[in-house]
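REVIEWER CHECKLIST
Item 1: Sequence provided? yes
Item 2: Single chain? yes
Item 3: Sequence as submitted:
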Amino acid sequence: MTKEEYKERKQQIQDKRQDIETKIKESKENIKQAKIHYKNNLNQRKKIKSEMKMLKISKNS
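Item 4: Structure as written out by the authors:
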């Protein structure tokens, strides 16, 4: 392998590494967003459930 080939190969590896690191960061960010959405949905469902209970109680009274 000549010096040119070596430098070229080294650059390709660095580029791939950087692409992978970027993908990992994006994935972590997506996971964070998904967790936030899940929590928000869960809280919304809890609110709706409690409102439904309140409606049932007020109807029965």
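Item 5: Key structural point noted by reviewer: The chain has one helix and no strands.
Item 6: Recommendation: ____
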